[in-house]
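Researcher:
Attend to token order:
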Amino acid sequence: MKYFGGCDVGSTYTKCVILQENGEIVSSVTIRSKINSELSAWAALDQAIAQVAEISKPSDLAYLIGTGYGRNKVPFADENISEISCHAMGVHVTNPNVKAIIDIGGQDVKGISIDKDGTVASFAMNDKCAAGTGRFFEAMANAFEMSIEEFSKLSLSAKNTIPITAQCTVFAESEVITLVGEGKPRDEIAAGIQLAVAKRCFVMAKKAGAKDSITLTGGCAKNEGLKKAIEDVLKIKVIELSIDPQLMGALGAAEFARQKGMDKE
């Protein structure tokens, strides 16, 4: 039996997926990224490999692909592929009916259109500002003195929405702290935050060719308030994936590795 790996070294989290020959996931790991990308990759690979009895080190993998922010630092990688391509492939093998993605990473937001073979048809990316990214949501949760998980559900109870006018993460955090200090309803402030991010995603989704449905990838895909806000703004259904959406980049990398490794035989 041969095994194939994908390691997605992101700015916030590092993910690793190992597949066997038939494409089944036999191991998956998500850890907080370290300052050093290579150390992040080593840590994720070590944990993922420890879950598979037949292999003991990265070089035992038949083929390994690195992706993400630190893709050039993945030890023993046979090659690296952009996270845009890997997210498209990861979603394709999870649900081939999905043709459009909003990927909200730690530092950027991407809109991706998927072709029928899992390759990228087109994409758009906002990497000029942290607003609307994972870092942004961390800052907002901190402003509420809540965990990310708690904050992601807060807006669901809101009957009204308090608009957040600041476009910059720093200014938005200051605005939120002021609103909280004034005693404004926290759920309505949270609804304003989710709406502001959803409007940013609207442009990316349209550029990605989203029509009837779309899916979310990255850690922010688990944000229930954001999912609802995106559905309200885009007027389309957000499809939930059967596999952890935070793993899509690593899964796509592993699938590319499997295809390339099998082709070598």
